[in-house]
């Protein structure tokens, strides 16, 4: 497992470092802008930007023939998928750290950064990224790495679609009830937590689907 993780890291090392620096700078700037849309974008940017190099890694493995070499090693195929999901989770955690640092730096210059709205955007950003990862891995192994750009677009649309659909369902069902139960917190916070839980469950389910697809795949 350690070898698989190191291979993914070194295959994407330059892209990951560039993504971290770029996300830190842009997210901090967005947080300092006095506009709500910039705050919402700042909640998504570090997570999506930092995990995106994984797609480059998949393409590199296909071009170099590494994905075919992997199946000749004395490894269970499920371990290969596990390494992808674990590496994705590590990058997501790095995105969390970058976002946290950006909020701290921005708060140093502007004292009203840590708000209820900021927390909800933060949680939605993590949730949407989990959904994107949950869609990307099974589809990439099913359709092939050559369609990686199309898979990435599908994952982004799916993540945004699930966010909007679940938000609408929440408002139509228990939204008003939750607002009355927790009047002192930001009205969108219960939904953001619920969306994060749904996204995590989706990510776990996709892991099982990806294993099944990869074990049946013929290279």
Describe this structure in words.
This protein has 219 residues and is mainly α. It has one domain. Helices cover 85% and strands 0% of the residues. The protein is built from nine helices and no strands. Helix 1 runs antiparallel to helix 3 (53-64) and helix 2 (36-51) runs parallel beside helix 6. The longest helix is centred in the middle third of the chain and has 33 residues, at 77-109. It is globular. The two termini are 21 Å apart.
Question: Which key terms come to mind for this protein?
Answer:
219 residues, mainly alpha
Q: In whole angstroms, how far apart are the ends?
A: 21 Å
Summed over residues and divided by their number, the pLDDT gives a mean of 79
What string gives the helices and strands in order? HHHHHHHHH
Categorize the overall geometry. globular
DSSP strand count: 0
Structural class determined from secondary elements = mainly alpha
What amount of the residues lies in strands? Answer: under 5%
Radius of gyration of CA atoms, rounded to a whole number: 19 Å
Major sheet attributes: none
- Domain count: the total is 1
Q: List the total number of helices.
A: 9
The residue ranges in which pLDDT falls below 50 over 5 or more consecutive positions are none
Helix content: over 70%
What is the secondary structure topology, with strand pairs?
Blueprint: H1 2-32, H2 36-51, H3 53-64, H4 66-70, H5 77-109, H6 116-143, H7 148-173, H8 175-181, H9 189-216
Helix pairs in contact: 1-2, 1-3, 1-5, 2-5, 2-6, 5-6, 5-9, 6-7, 6-9
């Amino acid at each position: 497992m350690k070898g698989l993780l190191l291979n993914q890291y070194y295959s994407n090392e330059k892209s990951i470092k560039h993504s971290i620096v770029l996300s830190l700078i842009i997210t901090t700037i967005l947080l300092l802008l006095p506009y709500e849309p910039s705050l919402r974008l700042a909640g998504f940017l570090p997570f999506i930007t930092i995990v995106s190099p994984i797609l480059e890694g998949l393409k590199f493995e296909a071009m170099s023939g590494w994905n075919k070499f992997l199946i000749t090693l004395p490894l269970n195929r499920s371990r290969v998928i596990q390494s992808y999901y674990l590496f994705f989770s590590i990058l997501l955690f790095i995105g969390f750290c970058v976002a946290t640092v950006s909020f701290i730096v921005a708060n140093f210059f502007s004292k009203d950064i840590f708000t209820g709205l900021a927390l909800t955007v933060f949680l939605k950003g993590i949730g949407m990224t989990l959904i994107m990862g949950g869609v990307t891995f099974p589809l990439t192994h099913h359709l092939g790495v050559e369609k990686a750009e199309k898979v990435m677009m599908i994952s982004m649309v799916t993540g945004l679609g699930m966010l909007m659909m679940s938000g609408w369902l929440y408002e139509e069902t228990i939204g008003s009830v939750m607002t009355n139960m927790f009047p002192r917190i930001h009205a969108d916070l219960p939904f953001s937590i619920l969306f994060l839980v749904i996204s995590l469950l989706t990510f776990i389910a996709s892991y099982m689907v990806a294993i099944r697809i990869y074990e049946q795949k013929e290279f």
